From TrEMBL:
Binds 1 [4Fe-4S] cluster. One of its GO terms (cellular component) is cytosol. Its EC number is 4.2.1.12. Catalyzes the dehydration of 6-phospho-D-gluconate to 2-dehydro-3-deoxy-6-phospho-D-gluconate. This is Phosphogluconate dehydratase. SUPFAM superfamilies: IlvD/EDD N-terminal domain-like, LeuD/IlvD-like. The gene is edd. The keyword Metal-binding applies.
Amino acid sequence: MKLHQTISEVTDRIRERSRPGRDAYLARMRGAAEDGPARAHLGCSNQAHAYAAMGADQDRLATSRAPNLGIVTAYNDMLSAHAPFQHYPERIKQVARTFGATAQVAGGVPAMCDGVTQGHDGMELSLFSRDVIALATSVALSHNTFDAVVMLGTCDKIVPGLVMAAGAFGHLPTIFLPGGPMTSGLSNEDKARIRRDFAAGKIDRADLMAAEMAAYHGPGTCTFYGTANSNQMLMEIMGLHLPGAAFVTPYTPLRDALTEAGTETILQQTALGDTYRPLCDILDERAFVNGIVGLMATGGSTNLVLHLPAMARTFGIRLTLEDFANISEITPLLARVYPNGLADVNHFHAAGGLAYVIAQLLEAGLLHDDVETVAGPGLARYTQEPKQPEDGALDWRPGPAQSHNDQILRPASDPFQPSGGLKRLTGNLGTGIIKLSAVKPEHRLIEAPARVFDTQDAVIAAFKAGDLEGDAAIVLRFQGPRANGMPEVHGLTPALSVLQDRGHKIALVTDGRMSGASGKIPAAIHLSPEAMTGGPLARVRDGDPIRLDAAAGRLENLAPDFDDRPAATADLTASHHGTGRELFALFRANASSATEGASPLFPEDDA
């Protein structure tokens, strides 16, 4: 199928915009590759330090030219998504030994969970943890003793941070080995209903706790289609997973077989062999366009609108909100997975999963097939599914030709809606985005008086006091990256859902994040410039008429004197100390805007 004209035009625009940075980046990567395996340039003392703890592998590391894999792991045993990685390093080492190679854990990176920190102080470190992970990974790989890299990470900020660091070492072949989703527990529909009932005071905390434990009940990623699972989709559609690897549950024979096959695959792609496939050749502008298409087609997380530009920057590629908007307009929504539907990712996988989605998008001319992947040339390889017959031999077979459940997954010829799940917003309140895939059409045009708040706690207090009855545009400001690290404000969803269910016209307008868990409340998020830097939200007052027209992509304050007002300020001292937040002052001071990825590693003046 011929590539869609818009996809071709957006790709060309990104390529041209990025040319100076991309050319310079590739020149650096080619130079690093030409130097040959880095550990060959280390002195004997340097190498001895690197090999001292490797036991039986010591001699092979010191005398052999076989590949040495560097493993970067986000393992910890307090978070379900990362607990499965506990035994991955030993499995990877065993596979490497069978090929005469070696593997070492180069380093660990922190993995925090927005589900744990939601609504609490720790959430203000969440977004910047991505950049901490990128820095920590770079430190781990700086020892220069590795011929290829294996990344073990799953959740919200972990995968983007790992990708950002991998870009700095893009001359090395790199593969991501996922942990997989937990098995299905309490349905997402019941979970959301119980949260609303608790917010409305219909049930007590014991009932809420029982429901939450039934929903989040075992190892693996949370099963809703939030940022963690959007990350897994991205790694597959961008060619950094083996085909079909994203949504296989932990501790199963197929999951183990994919981990072993991924290790074997990356061992064959180092500069020491005949099939050198560095990461810098896989993640080019076509791969990032494919990632955006996948995000739109599946109704993925709004957090990736922050992460993809930051990830792309380390590969010399510049993405803009216009790129996302243009791709969204022509990409059909093929999937309904909670919070955009009732199904979870296990149901999505069973209905046909990514193999079906990728096949449909390729057939519609919406994806670049002519890309490099860790599985080899061509994205068409990812229309196949891994199978493991009783004899244990892993192979790939053609994916489903049709959806097994059209309430979850539909063909491109009959989508849930003709355009993607994200919309760019512009107007006199700044530039932002809204996720529409879960918002009913009747809630996409809201005109209501502003209720202005500077903290999430103040919104919740007003709700509990009964002060939010009636139509309202909840303006929550001073939540951007320079103000307090841009925390998610998803904790407001139950309360705002209750107000909407009572028949009120409700919208959220914020310079903060709402995450992949955002649902039926129309939420204008990531507004830039943020209030902290004097952005338009700092001029909004209680009672101002706010108009959100999601279909038209417009967000406006209709007050006649709005443009002439001084910007309000806020005392943010409480957000700058405690829970380690005082250590992140440098990050807050240097973070770019949300439209640039909200990263302190790429300040705005470098844009």
